[in-house]
């Protein structure tokens, strides 16, 4: 029986997951997987060699060569034929960041919640937050909490950081469509449009009483940007409830 292919380590999720030509052709979109995007980012954007990219992604040079070749063919097809480029999916993993922040590994029954944080309150712009407060919840009770600083630029970097910190759920205020997609790709459940005291919001979430807006968008984002969930405003959540993200 063949071994399953090794997951490719991705350092940063893209800030945008869809690129469309000005004149829509009606042709089938090209889908660039996250590992294909990573090879293009490392080799073409950062100027790394294929060997260096392989080291960054924790795979063999031959694997990077195959992934990169596939990515280039897809990009060429999109540019020449006027196809939309979608980014998502792929056999990927994210670097564990818990050790660098001194955070203990989660137990099997622990839910880790992150909140955009400033002076005890929920910071209202996900992309500009300078810190997250993390809460570990077990058996319906908050067992531990701590504040960590953000160390990335752009929505994709923040989503990748949260994934590396083993976060399951994010509570925040305003958030754009691109950031929502990045969180969905990282497997993080979103409760947006929340304001007020951070601790109180987490307590409400644990009790299934958190009021949130599944259609939240940052005020400076256009309504057509990104993908949002199709639920109505004003829902309250239950444990592991909330809106389903589209990938």
Mean pLDDT: 85
Largest sheet: 6 strands, mixed
Beta-strand percentage range: 15-25%
- Give the helix level as a range of percent: 25-40%
Gyration radius over CA: 19 Å
Secondary-structure content class: alpha/beta
Low-confidence stretches: 220-247
What order do the SSEs take from the amino end to the carboxyl end, as H and E?
A: EEEHHHEEEEEEHEHEH
Q: Ends: how far apart? A: 31 Å
Specify the number of helices: 6
Q: Please state the overall shape, judged from the principal axes of the Cα atoms.
A: globular
Number of strands: 11
Main features:
disordered C terminus, 28% helix, single chain, 247 residues, 6-stranded mixed sheet, alpha/beta, 3-stranded mixed sheet
Sequence-ordered SSE layout with sheet pairings:
Layout: E1 8-10, E2 18-19, E3 30-32, H1 34-45, H2 50-57, H3 61-81, E4 85-87, E5 92-94, E6 111-118, E7 121-122, E8 131-138, E9 141-149, H4 155-164, E10 169-171, H5 177-185, E11 189-191, H6 198-207
Helix pairs in contact: 1-3, 2-3, 4-5
Structure report:
It is globular, with a radius of gyration of 19 Å. About 40% of the residues are buried. About 30% of the residues lie in helices and about 20% in strands. The protein is built from six helices and eleven strands. Strands 6, 7, 8, 9, 10 and 11 form a six-stranded mixed sheet that branches. It has a three-stranded mixed sheet with strand order 2-4-3. The protein is an alpha/beta fold and about 250 residues long.
